[in-house]
Amino acid sequence: MAAFVVVQESIENEAVFNQYRAKAPATIEAYGGKFLARGGNLEVMEGELPYKRLVIIEFPTRQDAIAWYNSSAYQEILPMRLSSSKGIFAVVDGV
């Protein structure tokens, strides 16, 4: 069953985040992941989002999503994201 990594974030250091943004796709693709939404035009229809940017990544399974996050390739670039943005990072099972 597919699983989705859902990210809500605000970018605080564009230069550092752009370095992360350039390297992240290859790490995601290596685990069968693909972007469904990547910071496009976001319109809140109800309530308030605490962060300005939304990313949704689909993986074949929850195990693939977790393996990607814990992979050495992703862990190597993770400090770039953590130092340049703040937000929420979660995985949810599809239906």
UniProtKB/TrEMBL annotation:
SUPFAM superfamilies on file: Dimeric alpha+beta barrel (SSF54909)
Start and end residues of each DUF1330 domain: 3-95
Pfam families registered for this protein in UniProt: DUF1330
Listed InterPro entries: Dimeric_a/b-barrel, DUF1330
Bilayer-spanning residue ranges: none
Superkingdom of the organism of origin: Bacteria
The protein's name: Uncharacterized conserved protein, DUF1330 family
